[in-house]
Write a structure and sequence with these properties.
The chain has 60 residues and is mainly alpha-helical. The protein contains 1 helix and no strands. The longest helix is centred in the middle third of the chain and has 55 residues. Keywords: Membrane, Transmembrane, Transmembrane helix.
Amino acid sequence: MHSMLRWRSIMRELSAEARLHLYARSVSRRAGTGFHTAALYSAFALIAAIVFGTLSVHPF
């Protein structure tokens, strides 16, 4: 009977560890998505700044 209780506690710990791992992965995924969104908007802002900057210069 003691081995059964020990097995249950081990399984419970593994289950808690698996839940923690899944939570960490979901947080990481959300942070990665936010980073990609920020990088995309920054790239568009840089392109717009270059285009409007070259249009505003009068070389002649």
